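User:
Note these tokens:
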Amino acid sequence: MEVQIFGTKSCNETKKALRFFKERRMKVHFVDLKQKPASAGELRRFAEKHGAEALLDREGKRFRERGLHAAHVPEPRILPLLEEDAMLLRTPLLRSGKHLAIGWNEGQWREWVAQAG
């Protein structure tokens, strides 16, 4: 089983996700969103499963810095906004085969590990 984790090195949730899979000796491929933003196709894949709203970090610092907390961001505008600025993403984003997860979700990850083992 290989897990791809999208996040930033400064994100505590991303660090916990990396540690979770490494402790279970799973192969991890980390994509630092500050260096390489997620592609439009990747974002679309997550949005199709969870909805674009789930990808947008409305509680994040970057959301406030851009003044988006005072504006209404409609669903069709979210994916283009995230493609433009990856720091607006709720992290970590995890992908393992057909499995996709957004944010910290240890219960779901344990299921992935159990299915792989």
The domain at 2-116 is CATH 3.40.30.10 (Glutaredoxin).
